[in-house]
Amino acid sequence: MGIAILSGVVASLEPHRNKSDFQKWESHTPGTLTPVNTPDVTVPTRFIACVSKEQSGKKLTATFANLGRQVEIVVSNNLWAVQQADVILLWYVLSTISRPLFKEVGSCKPQLAHTILEEPGMKEALDSKLLISILAGVTLSQLNEWILPSTTVIRAMPNTPCKIREGMTVVSPIPESAEAERDTARILKIFSSIGRCRFLEEKHFDACTALSGSGPAFACIFLEAMADGGVMMGLPRAEALELAAQTLQGAARMVLQVGAHPAQIKDAVTTPGGCTIAGLLALEDGRVRSTIARGIQIATERASELGQPGKK
Ligand SMILES: NC(=O)C1=CN([C@@H]2O[C@H](COP(=O)(O)OP(=O)(O)OC[C@H]3O[C@@H](n4cnc5c(N)ncnc54)[C@H](OP(=O)(O)O)[C@@H]3O)[C@@H](O)[C@H]2O)C=CC1
Ligand SMILES: O=C(O)[C@@H]1CCC=N1
């Protein structure tokens, strides 16, 4: 997930980004960000990604080699990376004071969070900084126990399409403080540049983890199954996949861009006595809706266990 976010953010900073990118950015954050086409002095200029294994370091170096902006890779030295930064996110670090910096400090599994944060010197390195955790299941109250009160901590739940700047990120409310406005702008700057970003209360985070965090996996099962159906009926695999993917994207965009209700879209496609209703009834016979919805329910329940004491 760290690679997806860092790739998206780095890509968003490249000079070839077009005007619509800026407009998209602004539309998510009315009044809080720099106006369209005005240079933003807080734009990050330096990136550091941290991992624990040499082999992962080599892989990351290869991954970021083609991005055209240098990403420093640090193996087994989270503390150093955090110390360099002014603003920190749990799996990565953003720094913007006089010299803008942006650092990633490993994208660790939820169970590892405590181990990383209890490293000697880490609390002090995080002092007065902004810590953003993307760790599924790990709560703000847990995180607050592992850091000094002077560190501001919030949660974010992104998803892998952040890599192509089509992500969905949910962010917990920013705690009230003198720096709240600045922190809000920094958070929106990152996550609105790599997709949609919305604030929601922490109580919704496990459901968001299941719906949008895990969602790309669920959507791809459906996508693959549609393509399989096409292949079963004789379509070549590549074309079946293209048709399925573009169809899902088109339907989703009708909901997001046009504001259509999914039922409206379904009804408009469904000619009386036609083939769509025949297919829909077959899907309903397989309890497709409750199966998908229960999948989100079960994933939500599992998300609530992640990072919790006594749970695997
Ligand atoms: N995958 C997803 O779609 C989403 C994931 N998340 C959250 O993101 C987090 C990471 O998940 P995911 O990306 O799937 O996991 P991965 O296992 O793919 O990535 C974990 C990364 O963390 C690094 N890491 C592990 N331990 C340390 C350490 N002690 N110090 C520094 N770096 C470390 C690993 O490097 P190394 O291999 O060298 O140890 C690896 O690069 C989880 O908390 C998950 O809940 C949230 C939303 C969506
Ligand atoms: O599977 C997981 O636990 C993580 C959280 C959301 C997506 N991946």
Bound molecules: NADPH dihydro-nicotinamide-adenine-dinucleotide phosphate, (2S)-3,4-dihydro-2H-pyrrole-2-carboxylic acid
**Which fold name is given in CATH as the topology of the largest domain?**
Rossmann fold
Tell me the count of domains. Answer: 2
Estimated structural class: alpha/beta
Report the total helices. 14
What percent of residues adopt helix (DSSP H or I)?
Answer: 40-55%
**Overall CATH class of the largest domain:** Alpha Beta
Count of strand segments: 9
Categorize the overall geometry: elongated
Question: In terms of quaternary structure, what is this?
Answer: single chain
The poorly predicted ranges are 17-39, 92-107
Strand content: 5-15%
CATH superfamily of the largest domain: NAD(P)-binding Rossmann-like Domain
What is the rounded distance between the termini? 21 Å
Average pLDDT figure: 83
Describe this protein's structure.
By secondary structure, the protein is α/β, with parallel strands linked by helices. The protein has 2 domains: 2-201, Rossmann fold, CATH 3.40.50; 213-303, ProC C-terminal domain-like (ProC C-terminal domain-like fold), CATH 1.10.3730. The protein has helices spanning 2-12, 19-28, 54-65, 78-84, 113-117, 122-125, 140-145, 180-191, 205-213, 215-232, 237-258, 262-269, 275-285, 288-303; strands at residues 47-51, 71-75, 87-89, 92-96, 100-103, 130-133, 152-157, 167-171, 195-199. The strands form 3 sheets. Strands 6-7-8-9 form a 4-stranded mixed sheet. Helix 10 (215-232) crosses helix 11 (237-258). The longest helix has 22 residues, at 237-258. It is elongated, with a radius of gyration of 21 Å. The chain binds NADPH dihydro-nicotinamide-adenine-dinucleotide phosphate and (2S)-3,4-dihydro-2H-pyrrole-2-carboxylic acid (A1CAB). NADPH dihydro-nicotinamide-adenine-dinucleotide phosphate is lined by residues 1-2, 50-53, 56, 78, 106-110, 112, 116, 134-136, 157-160, 213.
